[in-house]
Amino acid sequence: MAVKLPNAAVLAAHLKSGMDRNQIAARYGAHRDTVRLALIRYNLLDLAPAKSEGPARRVTRHLSREMITVHSDRLVILREMVAGDHGGVAIRQLSLPRVSMHVAALRERGVDSAVP
Q1: Hey, what's the torsion of the CAs at 89, 91, 92, 93, to 10 degrees?
Q2: Most CB contacts within 10 A, which of 23, 72, 83, 108?
Q3: On the CB side of 46, how many CA atoms lie within 13 Å of its CA?
Q4: Is residue 48 within 8 Å of residue 80, measured between CB atoms?
Q5: Which residues share a beta bridge with 81?
């Protein structure tokens, strides 16, 4: 069943009253992309409210200093990473070779360097 959106004058009135595409879509039981296509077809897209930009998303971040484990042959770091384009989060272990400059930097930060 196709969704019947109103004509250009009614859509323009909705936009001038402050409704955005999501609100118009909900009112008529349509998908927001269908409303967007109708606004393009009627040349009303410039009347639509500007899309607000949310806060910037971090791609990766350190959990904390305590998530670093020093082994005799490697360093293991736990990191929280965004997996994919849709923002799913996964905690991954990253193993790095034990390099003296890494160990020295960890000692300066106060992380224990002698884990069996």
Answers
A1: 160
A2: 23
A3: 1
A4: no
A5: 60, 90
Q: Which residue is associated with the tokens 């791609």?
A: 59
Within 10 angstroms of residue 38's Cβ, the number of other Cβ atoms is 22
- pLDDT per residue over 80-97, tens digit each? 777 666 667 777 888 888
Question: Which residue is associated with the tokens 């400059």?
Answer: 101
Which residues have C-beta within 8 Å of that of residue 109, sequence separation ≥ 6?
65
Model-wide pTM > 0.85: no
Give the integer Cα–Cα distance in Å for 66 and 75: 12
The secondary element (H helix, E strand) that includes residue 27 is helix 21-28
Round to whole Å and give the CA distance between 89 and 103: 28
Higher-scoring residue by pLDDT: 110, 20: 20
